[in-house]
């Protein structure tokens, strides 16, 4: 089992390995591997690095991959199948390329360095067979920016959104990366560690979540299992893959128990290598070698000291002649350096101008983005309002309240989920329907329109509610009957305020017939609070199932 602080790939016990062979030997090894049976996986390598390697081993540089069976164009699985058939039937179809000798003017080509990958354009990559990939990784290592892409031509690819696990990773648009549907979770975890630059000493584990509003992340704790082999991962649906990185003390940020099983050792030769990867062992071996060489040189110097003294004059003359040649070569290099410096200055000026233009373009995009966000916000508010209108139209209903006919909607009647109206028209109870399709309630219809207006708006605007105490008391009776708590609180507060005004000289001076509206807007706040509570509890109104006269 692997703990939260498990070592990252390549932190297992280090074994010393041989340095990269000479270029001509590298070419021979790769040529032999190309003739062998194909591996299951192929790995992404940039065409730029591939051409550098060809030039390094003496092959002619080309913008296209060589016509071997192991280096395929991106998204060209047919090339792999055709080349496989050619191994057995047409062995002569493999072109033998004679290494090109290094030019005397330019000298040997430099080492291509760590294996790279074109992250901007997939067409800038080729796919190399796993055997060749392991050799290149062992000889040169993998560049930090490489995403360790690999494909299985016998399986299907699927796009996943990827992110580092956080409370918000399922609510935003995340980067998209393509994986094989049968890819092992352990290798996917290694790729995400590489992409998100996770330090080697930090542990991690993999999670998956369907791209829906209410889905939850599920852990993928078996590293040797395929992504889509889990029951909660459907290859036909969009998913988010998230990497959870352990804290410095080894605990998990999500506080969810469970450590991944399996280790990264099986992928060690796929993701690391090169002389720089074993610096400590290399330095130890180098120190021992230098000590041996030093001893041998010391003995040889003692034996040849006398001969060197006797031939010093002859050697001096030869060295003087060689020094003249070195001076001429040095002067030629200085001239070339000055030319290169002039070209570099011109390039610097051009890049500075391009940077200025890009900054201007970025500012313009930011301004356009702000305008777009504002329009998007206004459109979202418009959608909410139109949705409310549609719901009201779809749930229209007719009521007969004490002989007064009202046309409203069950959406309005059920806004207060704790009210009697919500209980009557929520569909939980059967109500008798009149012949005209409406429903009769034996209450005072004169006050019911104020009840409806409160349910619709959540408050009363100043001047719309009579200030007569008798009227307010009667309306309070209706609100208590229908159990609309927000309206009951609003009317109770108004009546208490009214009593205080009537008892004061200023209140008596106002006289009857004047509307009363609290200066602090307390009734408006109570009403808006109640309607917001209604919207939270009943985001989607239920259709009322009512019983007709024939059913009763």
Overall strand count: 12
Structural class: alpha+beta
- List the helices and strands in order: HEHEHEHEEEHEEEHHHEEHHEHHHHH
Strand content: 5-15%
Number of helices: 15
Side-by-side strand order of the widest sheet: 6-5-9-7-8
Span of the ends, CA to CA = 67 Å
Helical proportion, percent range: 40-55%
* Radius of gyration, taken over Cα atoms and rounded to an integer in Å: 40 Å
Report the principal-axis shape: elongated
User: Largest sheet, described in full?
Assistant: 5 strands, mixed
Q: Low-confidence parts lasting 5 or more residues at pLDDT below 50? A: 1-17, 65-105, 276-285, 507-552
What is the averaged pLDDT score?
75
Question: Would you mind describing this structure in some detail?
Answer:
- With 552 residues, the chain is of the alpha+beta class.
- The protein contains 15 helices and twelve strands.
- A hairpin with a 7-residue loop joins strand 7 and strand 8.
- Helix 11 packs across helix 12.
- It is elongated.
- The two termini are 67 Å apart.
- The N terminus and C terminus are likely disordered.
List keywords for this structure.
single chain; four-stranded antiparallel sheet; 552 residues; 15 helices; 46% helix; five-stranded mixed sheet; alpha+beta
In short:
This protein has helices spanning 23-35, 47-57, 77-89, 130-140, 185-195, 268-271, 279-310, 312-394, 410-413, 420-424, 445-457, 469-481, 485-503, 505-510, 522-537, and strands at 41-46, 71-73, 125-129, 150-152, 157-164, 176-180, 204-210, 218-220, 239-245, 396-401, 404-409, 439-441.
